[in-house]
Amino acid sequence: MANKMRVLIADGLAKEGSSLLKQNSQIELMAFDAIDREELKEKLPQVEILIVRSRTQVDKDLLETARNLKLVLRAGIGLDNVDVPACTDQGIVVMNAPTGNIVTTAEHTLAMIFAVSRHIPQADATLRSGKWEKKKFQGNELRGKTLGLLGLGNIGRTVADRALGLGMRVVAHDPYVNPEAAAKQKIHLVSMDELLTTADYVSVHVPLIKSTQNLINEVALRKMKKGAYLVNCARGGIVDEKALLTVLSEKHLAGAALDVFETEPLPESSPLLKCQDLVLTPHLGASTEEAQVQVSLEVADQIALYVGEGVLKNAVNVPNVTLEQLNAIKPYVQLCEKLGSFATQAGPQNVKKIKVHFEGEISTLNRELLTLSVLKGLLSPVLSTTVNFVNARKLLKERGIRVEESFEQECADYNSLIELTLSGDETFSCSGTLFGKEEPRIIKVDNFNIDAIPTGHLLFTKNVDQPGVIGSMGTLLGTHGVNIARMHLGREPKKAEAIALINIDSEPSSPALDSLRKTKGMISVKAIRI
Predict the structure, then answer these.
(1) Is 264 one of the annotated active-site residues of the chain?
(2) Residue where a domain terminates, one of 280, 300, 330
């Protein structure tokens, strides 16, 4: 028993997967359907692998007791209840099971579309109360209608496939999907405004991040066609619930269907419960027997690979390699991921080609692993799908984005150098290296030489190279309560332009960014989080 790895299931797991775990001779299993948090804290110091679903909150408080924890595995795709950065800080690998509930969530989206179109919940309720209101609940066919998908990841594409089979026309908005790739699935990519104004049904399939918080606000809702329907089975907080109620009360929309909410469980006092034009379900997107079985089998397979071979499958904070390989290459992995994250936030949209170039010592290491680190950094800030070192290339291929790799063993100025070039609406490049053995640095952006630390909140600015601009920036940031930690400058005298990469202590507000953009001599301002 001493050599076995201790595994604890906190929130239950389908018997098909838990049986496989029990049969694994390399683990000692403790299984609970819903373990109390205090009891979990008592047991966690002896646990090496923790398996959770959506109930257990894996936060800093819980992790304080996790002295021997090596792996947290979320039995599902979402990681809202797992503090991934906190796990990473403690050297804990985080995995999810991303494929088991794609079809289930897509089917629930379609079920909600059917339900809201044919008034099924309302008709059922009135019939049970003794009424026969056939005329009142006359609905709409889906055939010939336009479905607009906000986000075209795995679930969005699956919804599209089913909707096309129903005779619907499908349009989508996703700035990170190549139009040609979408067209192969008979999906027409459009702007968000065009989607809102033309779709009969708008279905949300984006992650809940800063840029999508209240993405569907009152302005967006009023842009939708009169008589259209809204469906959200993605994440609560993307749709402004108060604004939705206002627009529904005015009969601008014919109805809406929500499976997710700003606060979950939905409070009994929520005004959503009183709205007759809403279909509501309690976050059932992944709740089918088939999905739970598939997820449990996926979890059992990942645990077996981890304890048997040290292989990290579907890891979200480290690459899928042996632990021995990871320790040797870890500083370069971090550099590559940070450089990719910076490039996707600072560079162009509609990227069609990515070129990764290695020079010096880094070119002799596992270049596939390092390229995957770049791609993970590129995609993670912008996709609803969880990006890891298994699916990064596949996600790029699905979006019609080509990846080119090259290397040189000689490097003139540094021990190692990585250069990343994005070709899209414009061409953008940046280069990075390690100072010492493990300190990442950005040393070049386009033709500007610079020495910047890629971490935390940053501002990336470009301005006319003239007196007063930098001073104005500092004054404006101070006025808006933004503290500058470091400022790194670069100049290109031939163009009379300059750039700045500014490390700041907190996220800049929209008014602060607007003020910076209006500064005399300013060309562009981008807020970046790494």
Answers:
(1) yes
(2) 280
Least Cα distance to 8 among 308, 322, 18, 315 occurs for 18
Residue 471 lies in a domain: yes
Round to whole Å and give the CA distance between 68 and 52.
17
Q: What domain range includes position 467?
A: 455-530
Is 283 designated active site? Answer: yes
> Which region, left, alpha or beta, applies to residue 314 given φ > 0 means left and ψ of -120 to 50 means alpha?
left
Per-residue model confidence (pLDDT) at position 399: 85
**pLDDT score at 269:** 96
Kindly state whether residues 82 and 159 are assigned to the same domain: no
- Alpha helices in 263-366, H assignment, sequence order: 289-309, 323-346
Q: Which segments in the chain show pLDDT lower than 50?
A: 1
**What's the pLDDT at 181?**
84
Placement of tokens 């933004």 in the chain: 482
Kindly state whether residues 135 and 210 are assigned to the same domain.
yes
Asked if the structure places residue 111 within a domain, the reply is yes
Residue 221 near residue 249 (C-beta atoms within 8 A): no
Catalytic residue among 283, 399, 441, 488: 283
Question: Of the listed 264, 309, 368, 507, which one is catalytic?
Answer: 264
Of the residues 235, 399, 441, 488, only one is catalytic, namely 235
Q: What is the pLDDT of residues 16-34, one digit of tens each?
A: 999 999 999 999 999 999 9
Q: Are 516 and 459 in contact (CB under 8 A)?
A: yes
How far apart, in whole angstroms, are the C-alpha atoms of residue 364 and residue 1? 41
